[in-house]
Design brief:
Layout: E1 4-10, E2 20-30, E3 34-35, E4 38-45, E5 56-59, E6 64-65, H1 79-100, H2 107-115, E7 121-123, E8 133-138, H3 147-161, E9 164-170, H4 179-182, E10 185-191, H5 193-198
Antiparallel strand pairs: 1-2, 2-3, 2-4, 4-5, 5-6, 7-8, 8-10, 9-10
Length: 201
Amino acid sequence: MNMFEIRNIDLKKVSSSDFIKFLRIEIPERKGYGPLRFARVRYALNGDQKEQENGLPMDLGKEIFTATLEDEELGEISRKELEETLQRAAVEIIKIVRKELGKEPDILGILKGILKDYPYLAYDELYSKPPDVLKCHVTDSSNPRQVEDIFQIANRLRLATGENYIVAYGGSSNDGANVDEAWTRFSLRRFDFRETKSNGA
C-alpha cells in the first residue's frame, strides 16, 4: 500500500530568465500527515519547454535549494548568475507553496513576537501598512539602543517569513547627533525584486 502521494504545484508565475524556467514543484505528502519538507522543483532550460529529467531538490523548511545544476548544464550563464537566480526563485517558490498549502505566514504576528526580545521598541499601529510597510518606534529615548538591532530584526523576520524587507531609520532631534545612536524609529518595507526589475531599476 502506497503511503505517499505527490502534490504538484504550478510554478510558471515564478520569475524566470532566458536560461531557466521553473515549471512545477513536486511535494510528497504522507497520507494522514500532510506534506514532507523535501520537494523537487522541475524546470526547463534555454528557452526550451521540455522538462529536464533531473529536478532541483529543495528543503521547504530551510527554504533553500539543496543542490544546483551540473557544470555541463550551465551553457552561457555563470555559476554566480545561476546561484543568484536560484536564491531569488526560492523566495517566490516558498510564497507560492505556502499559499497553496494554506500556510501563509502571519508576518505581523511574527514581528510582534520578535519585538518582545527588544523591550525598548514597540510596533507602530497607526503608520504601518502590514504586511508591506511595518513601522516601529523607541518607547523611551533615554534607553541605550543599537542600530544593529534593527537589521537583526529585519533578518529574523526574513528567516521566519521568506520575505525581504528594506530597512530605513531616523528620528534624531539633534542635527549634530549620530543617527546610528540617536534613532527613534525605523521602518521595514517589503522588497519585491520583480517590481524593481519591471521598473528597470
